[in-house]
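Lab meeting prep.
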Amino acid sequence: MNYCYQCGRITAGEPLFCNFCGRSYDVKLCPRLHANPRIADVCSQCGSRELSTPQPKVSLAWQAFAFFVKVALGGFLAYVSVAVLVELLTELLTEPRVQNALIALGLLLVGLWFLWSMLPDWFRKAIHHAVHSPKDKERGHGRR
């Protein structure tokens, strides 16, 4: 998303121009969309004199302020997310029903891996080839 300092609106995605006022973001663009610096009068690649009008330049102080706001907000959101996740995991892991379900799931997985390791190689390879479709083999995703 880009914020336009001319009209004060946000355009979603990675646009070259503001959808509301039509100004370009931080560069001058020719009709062929070659990027040129703000001070350019002629496109450096095609020579066109038809260049877009970029949005107003933002002062370094405002850029620094915006950066620190983003960092502070990101840090706060990360802290809250981790705190909620830790609290959720703590509650889940101290619940006896969840502990019993995790133990049962672990035992089931150990049993399945044990059974898989006891199968003969030819049978495991047959299962592996049956699972991978011929289309996977044509694309190079299957084992050969």
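Slide two material, second protein:
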Amino acid sequence: MSVLPDVRMTEAEYLAFDRASEIKHEYYRGEIFAMTGGSPEHNMICISTSATLYNQVRGQPCKIYSSDQRVRVPRTRLYTYPDISIVCSEPHFVDEALDTLLNPTLLIEVLSPSTESYDRGKKFQHYRQIDSLREYVLIAQETPHIEHYLRQDDGNWLLRDAIGLESRIELPSIGCTLALADVYEQVTFEPEENAGDAGG
């Protein structure tokens, strides 16, 4: 992401601007951040993850949204675009445009080199302020590894790692299981023994 220099907007101005734009923008405290597209691997992981979860929630109240679904964090007023958003109650939106979700149950981000520290750090700090959010999932691109954060009854978050294509994670808030073999279908990984080889 890159901040648009010398541009500050109100929330209403941002929404009008972003809705008219051909690219997506994040918004926080008046600043606008242009969002870049994902790699082929990023896109494949998003599609595979959405597909396997959709097959499990069909016929249930849960709704799955792609990265085109804007999310607003009510307490901090961050507007952003998670890679996958899932809501298992009646969805609430900012206005009648129905393009800015307020109450996700589960959010998923596929990590990229340019956004990994943000997704792990400040972005997750914002997400934790969403009262409806029960789970947060981070999916690595370069190795089969998923980090799963589950909100506990006392408000703390429990981290569980799933490593390797034979692993899977349970997503209790939506009643689904996510198998890493499904998430990383058609994704090719560099052999581990060559990962640090600089050559010649």
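Talking points for slide two:
The first helix runs from residue 11 to 20.
The radius of gyration is 17 Å.
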